[in-house]
Write a structure and sequence with these properties.
Length: 537
C-alpha cells in the first residue's frame, strides 16, 4: 500500500478509536461550538477532528488541513488534506451505521486531488484511490457497473432543502434511497452497487461542500464514473469552505439526460457479434446460417468467423456489441466472457453445452425469438482473483490452484474472512461460483448450487484426508489461499488463462462487481440440469 494511503489509514484507525470512547449517543450529539463552515459542531465532530490534527502534528505529516470544523490550517506545506472528520454526523448521533471519515489530498481544487481515503467507521470497510491508478475497496479493485435502466438505483438528496425535482426523480426511477452520507452514497456508485447520486438543493447554502465529497470524487473518477454540474459540465470545486454546489454523480453519462433533462431511455436495436470455435465440425455452414438469420441487422464478426464467410472481422475484445452469438461449447462461452462484457447467446456446437441456450437444429428459431425481443438476460456474478495484490482474469466458473508437477501433492491453508477454515494436503483447491458448481467442482463431489444462491464453493482436489470436504461460504466473504510449501503451483481461471506461481504464494478471492450475462429463451435451471447433466451419458 502507498505510504500516504497507509498514513490516512492510520489516521482513520485513530479516529475510530477516539469515537468509540464517547460513552453515549447523547454525548456524541452535544453541540460544543460553531464550526468554520457556519454549522454547529457536535462533540463527535470535534473529537474526530482533534484526533486528526493531533496525529498530523505528532507524526510530522507534511500536510496543510482544510476541515469542516476548524477551517484551513496552514502548516507550511504544498498539499492540503481535505477532511470531513465525520461525514454523516446525524447518522452517527442516531446510531445509524452509515458515517465515515473522508480524506483527500491535493491542492487548489477537486480535480487536482491525487489521493483519497474513505472509511466506514462502523463496518470498518475502507476505500482508497490514487489518481491514474484505479480505486480499491479493502484491497480489491472496484469499478462502476454497466447501466441497466430497468434496474436503476439512485441515491437522491431528499433533505428539507431539496429541490422539488429531486422528489420527482424519486418517482421516476425504479429504486432510490437517501442515506444522509454523501461520501458513502457516491462510493456505492464507485463499487458498482448504485447508478447515480443526485444532489440538488434549492437553498444553495445547503448545497454540497468540498469536504463532503473530496475523497469520493476521486474514488468515483478512478472507478470509471462521471460527475457533472447541473448544466452538464464536468464538475469541479475549489478547496474552500465557502463554496457550495449541486451536482450529479453517475456510472454512465446517459444518466445525465435522464435525470436532468427528463429524457426517457430508448432501447435501440441490439448490435450483434458472431463468434465461432473453428474446431466445430462444419463450422462455416453454421456461421452462414447465423448470418442469414441476422440478415438486415447490425452484425460484427470475429476474426475467424469473418474469414470463413468473406466478411471483415475483429478480435472479440474489440467487438462493440450488445449480444454476442457464440458457436461452440462452454469453453467458447467462457473465453468470450473473459474478453467482452456483452450478453452471450450460446449456440451449442460442443458437447454438453450447459451454458448454451440454442441447439444447432434451432439456430433460426432461436435468433428469430431474440430479434422479436422474446428473451431475457440472466446475470450471474463473477469471481475476482488477486495474486500479489494484482487482479488477474475474472472467472465465470472457477479459479483453480493446482500443483505444477504431476503426482506431487501440495499443502494449502484456506482462510475465510481472515479466519483459518481448514488446512489441506491436496492436488489443489477450487474456488467456484454457483455457475461453476455444475462444472469442475461438481466432478469432485461438490454440491450443485442454484445460480440465485449468493455463495462460493471451496473444493479441495484429491485431498489426502477423506475429511477434507467442500465448503459453501457466503459470496461476500473474502477467501484467501496460502500455498504452504515452497513448491510451484498453477493458477488457472475458467480453464482459459494460466499463471505459474511460486511456492509460498498467497491468492485472494472476492465476489466481483462485474457480472456475466446470458441470453435466455425460457428454459429454467433445473430443466437444464435434468437434460444436460442427470440424463446425459
Amino acid at each position: 500500500m502507498d505510504s500516504l494511503i497507509e498514513t490516512l489509514s492510520a489516521i482513520a484507525d485513530a479516529v475510530k478509536k477516539a469515537v468509540d470512547l464517547i460513552p453515549t449517543l447523547e454525548e456524541r450529539g452535544k453541540d460544543v461550538e460553531m464550526g468554520a463552515d457556519g454549522t454547529p459542531t457536535s462533540e463527535v465532530d470535534k473529537i474526530a477532528e482533534n484526533t486528526v490534527l493531533d496525529y498530523i502534528i505528532r507524526n510530522n505529516v507534511p500536510l496543510n488541513v482544510l476541515s469542516e470544523e476548524i477551517g484551513y490550517v496552514d502548516n507550511g506545506f504544498d498539499d492540503i488534506l481535505v477532511l470531513d472528520p465525520i461525514d454523516g454526523t446525524s447518522n452517527c448521533i442516531a446510531g445509524v451505521p452509515l458515517y465515515t471519515i473522508s480524506m483527500a489530498v491535493g491542492k487548489g481544487s477537486l480535480s487536482q486531488c491525487h489521493t483519497a481515503y474513505l472509511r466506514n467507521l462502523t463496518t470498518g470497510e475502507s476505500m482508497w484511490a490514487k489518481k491514474g491508478e484505479g480505486a480499491f475497496k479493502d484491497g480489491r479493485r472496484i469499478h462502476v457497473r454497466e447501466l441497466n435502466p430497468r434496474e436503476m438505483f439512485m441515491m437522491i438528496y431528499l433533505g428539507n432543502g431539496a429541490d422539488p425535482k429531486a422528489f420527482q426523480l424519486a418517482k421516476r426511477v425504479p429504486s432510490s434511497r437517501s442515506y444522509g452520507c454523501s461520501s458513502l452514497e457516491m462510493a456505492l456508485i464507485a463499487e458498482g452497487q448504485a447508478d447515480g447520486f443526485y444532489m440538488h438543493s434549492e437553498i444553495l447554502s445547503r448545497g454540497i461542500r468540498v469536504v463532503d465529497i473530496a475523497a469520493s470524487y476521486l474514488l468515483l473518477k478512478e472507478a470509471g464514473g462521471y460527475i457533472f454540474d447541473l448544466e452538464g459540465n464536468e464538475f469541479d470545486m475549489p478547496l474552500s469552505l465557502e463554496a457550495r454546489s449541486n451536482f450529479l454523480a453517475c456510472s454512465d453519462p446517459s444518466i445525465y439526460d435522464f435525470v436532468v433533462k427528463g429524457k426517457p431511455f430508448v432501447r435501440p436495436r441490439p448490435r450483434f457479434g458472431v463468434l465461432i470455435n473453428p474446431g466445430v465440425p462444419d463450422a462455416k455452414s453454421y456461421v452462414e446460417r447465423v448470418k442469414a438469420a441476422l440478415d438486415g441487422e447490425n452484425v460484427v464478426y470475429d476474426t475467424v468467423a469473418g474469414e470463413m464467410i468473406g466478411e471483415p472481422g475483429v478480435p472479440v475484445e474489440e467487438m462493440d456489441v450488445d449480444i454476442i452469438v457464440t458457436i461452440g461449447g462452454d469453453g467458447t462461452i467462457l473465453r468470450t466472457a473473459m474478453k467482452n462484457r456483452a450478453a452471450i447467446a450460446g449456440i451449442n456446437g460442443g458437447g454438453v453445452g450447459f451454458l448454451a441456450e440454442i441447439e444447432l437444429d434451432g439456430i433460426e428459431e432461436g435468433i428469430a425469438r431474440i430479434l422479436k425481443g422474446d428473451y431475457t438476460v440472466e446475470e450471474r456474478f463473477k469471481l475476482d482473483t488477486y495474486y500479489n495484490g494484482q487482479m488477474v482474469e475474472q472467472a465465470v466458473n472457477e479459479t483453480v490452484i493446482h500443483t505444477d508437477t504431476i503426482g506431487k501433492i501440495r499443502q494449502f491453508k484456506i482462510f475465510v474472512d481472515g479466519k483459518l477454515a481448514t488446512e489441506v494436503r491436496a492436488d489443489g483447491v477450487i474456488i467456484s461460483t454457483p455457475t461453476g458448481s455444475t462444472c469442475y467442482a461438481m466432478s469432485l463431489g461438490a454440491p450443485i448450487l442454484d445460480p440465485a444462491v449468493n455463495a462460493f464453493v471451496i473444493v479441495p482436489m484429491a485431498a489426502y484426508k477423506f475429511a477434507s470436504r467442500p465448503f459453501v461460504v457466503p459470496s461476500d466473504s473474502k477467501i484467501t489461499v496460502e500455498c504452504v510449501l515452497d513448491r510451484g503451483c498453477l493458477l488457472v481461471i475458467d480453464g482459459q488463462a494460466e499463471h505459474a506461481i511460486p511456492g509460498l504464494s498467497r491468492i485472494d478471492f472476492a465476489k466481483s462487481s462485474k457480472k456475466v450475462r446470458f441470453v435466455r429463451l425460457g428454459k429454467d435451471f433445473y430443466s437444464r440440469v435434468r437434460e444436460k447433466l442427470v440424463n446425459a451419458i
